[in-house]
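Section 5.1 Outputs to date
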Amino acid sequence: MEQPAHRAEGAGPFTTRLTWHHPEGGTVVWESRLARKRGALSVRDPGGTVTLSPTADAKTLDRLRRLNSVASAAFFLGGILFALGAALAQFGSGDPTESASVYFAGGLFFNVGGYTSLLQVLNAPRHSPRGGPPATTGWRWWGYEPMRLDWLSTFVLFAGTLVFGVNLLDSFLQGLTVQQTNRLIWAPDVVGCVLFLVSGHLAFAEICHRSRPCVRSRSLGWWVVVVNQFGSVLFMVSAAAAFTRPATQSLVNADIANWGTLCGALCFALGGVLQAFERP
């Protein structure tokens, strides 16, 4: 008979950490982020020493390593291009097509990063009974698992990158009225920012194992979540400042819109760099 975990933790109906206690002392802990990012369990021996063991098989570790490399590189390049697009909008020639083209290229990298993050969840090792080695499944390009918090977080993130794509495509349209600009460009921008913020909140719930944010300054994964969520907040500030007022036909504050995008994008670029080290 399978031995149930001695302790299950998580936010709401989601389980993000399971703990088994060995009869001879010590514990084995499965955490969803640790398993999908590093393919490992956390083991504490009777003396209190913590190690990451046992790991998944070599093939699975190589899969996780490649997915993490693609995701981290995509978010880094997407962030750098978004920052460049904002810099062109603030300091460039004033040609909106120029910055829109750079933004669009950055958006494609964000799409890749969002989808690869979802693939990391779908192809990550699953926890095994009795605290044994993580179990792996065959490669999957898609899956529907809304009762997994990591799946929900990365799915919302991917959806946000797709909505940003609508905003970036519409930004190439010329001759729009103020109402059309707000409906076709500004509204998708705000929706994308909201989805990014929701995804970040879910990521906090996953790594904190509760609904409220926490401080885990020794955790690299926590820093990745914090930096990206701060970038999402700056994106939302930028979106709010980019609303076109019908009375004046001008943005609420173009400087805040550009600087918010630039700084938020640099946060995602930094998050991509940090994520490169969160690997098996």
